[in-house]
Amino acid sequence: xxxxxxxxxxxxxxxxxxxxxxxxxxxxxxxxxxxxxxxxxxxxxxxxxxxxxxxxxxxxxxxxxxxxxxxxxxxxxxxxxxxxxxxxxxxxxxxxxxxxxxxxxxxxxxxxxxxxxxxxxxxxxxxxxxxxxxxxxxxxxxxxxxxxxxxxxxxxxxxxxxxxxxxxxxxxxxxxxxxxxxxxxxxxxxxxxxxxxxxxxxxxxxxxxxxxxxxxxxx
Length: 219
Ligand SMILES: *Cc1c(COP(=O)(O)O)cnc(C)c1O
Known about the structure:
This protein is an alpha/beta fold.
């Protein structure tokens, strides 16, 4: 019997390819967001050959991923959740990409951890694209300065990441993020979740972060 998540992976991959081609873009990388799910839930996707996964907490990821990485060579692990500066070294040690670089203190901590370990995960600057009070991400106007600071600290910034406001059409926010990335000369765009990954793909996402549409609702 095919596992549900495996058939959903195929369906979503098809949808992404189609949506991206409508916008004349390459299909984005599908990050399977496995937060809150245990190894037994994740394994069918690994067995089916999927290798790109996302987690939002360093500690949770450190608990379940080292054994899976050992068993399935080629896993690419993305940190998509807010990162505290005191966990920067652990994050650099475990993750291949960090999507939530958004403030000077974190930039300093990551720069130090990278210099010490010699590991340099790809980094995305998270932008507070809806200018929402309680949301992570740097302000739109501060993004160029943040990019400069991150580069000065030795962080390999490859693109921008955003989570648009909830409950409204995400397309204008995705378009704005894409425009910002273009103007900054950044190639990658981490945008789109279960609700809106097709729109994101159409507007040029390089990475979509999909959890519940793959694994089902989280408990
Ligand atoms: C949980 C999470 C996702 C995935 O959300 P779904 O709606 O389950 O697809 C994507 N991005 C971030 C930053 C998340 O925390």
